[in-house]
Amino acid sequence: MKLLEHEGKSLLQEWGIRVPEGVVAGEAEAAARAAERLGRPVVLKAQVPAGGRGKAGGVRAASSPAEAERVARELLGSTLLGHRVASVLVEESVALGGEAYLAVTVDYACGAPVLLFAREGGMEVEDILATDPAGLHRMELPGVRFPEEHEVRWFLARAGMSGKQLVRLTDVAVRLC
Hints:
Blueprint lengths: L4 H10 L7 E4 L2 H11 L3 E5 L12 E4 L2 H11 L3 E2 L2 E2 L3 E5 L8 E7 L4 E7 L6 H7 L4 E5 L8 H10 L4 H14 L1
Antiparallel strand pairs: 1-6, 2-3, 2-6, 4-5, 7-8, 8-9
């Protein structure tokens, strides 16, 4: 299943996982209104079902509603990574203290879902893992049960997390599972 970013974030919100505030816009004027409503610098993200949007120019910052409108005009209707851009996600710009990688996927080799975690992550997780494959930690989730909070906390602690980060990430991981 391929989801656009805003669709995935909507699912995360349904499970109580915090995401930056954002609005989907299909017109440049709507992007400007969204930026004005958010009342702070924003990031416009082309909504296409492909990775690598940032490197391809599909993720751009705007410091004002007028700039958001200009950026949206450039993105909407363009082709990005082989897909026509019909909408943009106008999202509040947030300062990152760092990036990590957390995912749940199905490992068909072992026949079970797995929780994946890397302390280094974000957009370049594949590149990071190519140089340090031991940096990717995995926890098999056999059967049809969700992992217990203490199991996830132990897994993340073994991967090097501690303190408030461990507590917050454990909560996100449990909800993600």
